[in-house]
Amino acid sequence: MAHLSGGDFGQEIVGESNYFKILARCFKAGRQDKSGKRSYMTVKLVLENNNKHDKNAVAVVSDFGTVGYLPRADAKLYRKLYGNNETHSTDAVIYSQDGTKFGVWIDVCLDDDCMDEDWIDEPDDNSQSPSTFIQHSNTPVERPIILEPKQPPKPPKAWKEQTSREKIAVGLAWIFLAGCVYFAFALLCWFFGLFV
């Protein structure tokens, strides 16, 4: 079984919402990054020739079960580029903001020019399973971005909790504000000729 690698996790998959429980298990079992919002694991791309909804269906299958499918157009292109009878493995990244929704992207190149730029690196003789690693030197695709939720502003500290510097800064700010108000009032009085 060959391992495919596009180098950019630029290939989306669809139908993740149908596999929430499996994705939750995958997310916990995968290699999570420091943010705790991304988890990496290896998945298989399995051809489903008898799928009643799409004869070209390509399932993305983890150790815990199916996590989604390649989109229809991408499944056709995958079969064209990588064959109609083989199962391949690839790396996947599972995104989750809070553990209630998941998104999955895989590391496969499905551009027409991928096959022209591939290089094949045979594994060492010591490896347990002989597999071929296919890598691509294509331009990276922008990764999906999960936006951080907006944090509510922190309430101001009570006067007793502020340091001396903070108290001085607040006092100077009030003096400056009072000066601005006085200057505006004086300017208006002069302009309209009041209090002459």
Give an account of the 3D structure.
The protein has 196 residues and is α+β, with helices and mostly antiparallel strands. Helix content is 28%, strand content 23%. It has 4 helices and 10 strands, in the order E-E-H-E-E-E-E-H-E-E-H-E-E-H. Strands 1, 2, 3, 4, 5, 6, 7, 8, 9 and 10 form a 10-stranded mixed sheet that branches. A hairpin with a 2-residue loop joins strand 5 (58-62) and strand 6. 21% of the residues are buried.
β-sheet strand percentage: 15-25%
Please state the CA-atom Rg, rounded to the nearest Å. 29 Å
Number of helices: 4
Q: What's the overall average pLDDT, rounded?
A: 77
Q: Helical proportion? A: 25-40%
Are there runs of 5+ residues with pLDDT below 50, and where?
116-149
Q: Secondary-structure element order, as H and E?
A: EEHEEEEHEEHEEH
**Largest sheet descriptor:** 10 strands, mixed
- Coarse shape: elongated
Structural class: alpha+beta
Rounded to the nearest angstrom, the distance between the terminal CA atoms is 95 Å
The tally of beta strands, per DSSP, is 10
Short description:
The protein has 4 helices and 10 strands; from the N terminus they run E-E-H-E-E-E-E-H-E-E-H-E-E-H. It has helices at 20-29, 72-82, 114-117, 164-192, and strands spanning 3-5, 11-12, 31-32, 38-47, 58-62, 65-69, 88-95, 103-106, 119-121, 133-135.
